[in-house]
Design brief:
The protein contains 5 helices and 23 strands. By secondary structure, the chain is an alpha+beta fold. The chain folds into 2 domains: 132 residues, YerB-like fold (3-Layer(bba) Sandwich), CATH 3.50.90; 145 residues, 3-Layer(bba) Sandwich (YerB-like fold), CATH 3.50.90. The strands form 5 sheets. Strands 1, 2, 3, 4, 5, 9, 15, 18, 19, 20 and 22 form an 11-stranded mixed beta sheet that branches. A hairpin with a 5-residue loop joins strand 10 and strand 11.
Amino acid sequence: MKKVAIVVLVLIIVLCMFFYFNNKNKITEEKQIEQPELSSQQEEKVVEEIKTPTIQTFAGNERPIAFMIDNNVNAQPQASINSTYMVYEIIVEGGETRLMALFKGVKADKVGPIRSARHYFLDYALENDAIYAHLGMSPQATNDFKLLKIDNINGQVYDTGKSKTDTSLYWRDKSRKAPHNAYTNTESILKISKDKGYRTTSDKESVLNYVVDEVNLDREDAIIANSVKIPYGNTHIVEYKYNPETKRYTRFSKNKKITDDITGEDVTTKNIIITLARNYTLDDKENKGRQDVVTVGELDGYYITNGKAIKIKCSKKSRKDQTTYLDMEGKEINVNDGNTWVNICPIEAKITFGE
């Protein structure tokens, strides 16, 4: 009986193994049928894409949109600021700054608060081939929009003055006080642009020389930059703090960490460019303290990424030309693939770096 039991047990094991491998082969055959073979050209393309990473920032042929964003303390936190590929911060009247936030190929349902245009921001909208979205404009900007032939959308024409509806193009957030409460979105700006006959695609190359390989600024002239302070004046100091785990900088303004109003996440950036530019008060007979900023020429500055900084030259031949960012040897700098904050600050600003 013992021998019979052993024989029966062996037969059961053999049968189990037979059914297991038989089913496994059937499953494998079915998978092979479901996955058609790639042609040699398709295989080469897949291999090439795996071997050759592509730049993500500024990818695609969508035309950028530049939004004039309020940076007053009553306007913070701003909406969708983390969805930008580039933000320019420049001084305006009263020692404050405004932001020109550039979006490309992304959908943002709420952007703002939107404020009025200043003429020197137009130079940077031009070099990015961007449609300029704003809510009013200074007399100087009014003149320069025509002079420089910049596609722009003045939200004053479309401002409903009411809370957002399905048809509103610019609207007011009643939870905030005017003038720090006007908003729009990318879809509305694209709709108006098409109605006006503006191009919504662009073949212009990026201002920055993005590279795939990580830029670590491992060079003798590099400065340790785990923190960066940029004083625009006595009342407005911008600071960035480096996070070595994420390899990104967190933004602070007026001693407060800045967040994105949509996501609640900290506002961060991969790259920081500082440009030291001369500014002065305009004598425009209105006595509002409006500024002019010298954007053209070879201006001193810094490129900052991954916890280090180097001195650079920011070279712009004319208002319409793109800025070229050069190291101290005259070579165009490589920039990490990722978003960038460009802080164009007073020439006398004492920039400080911390370890």
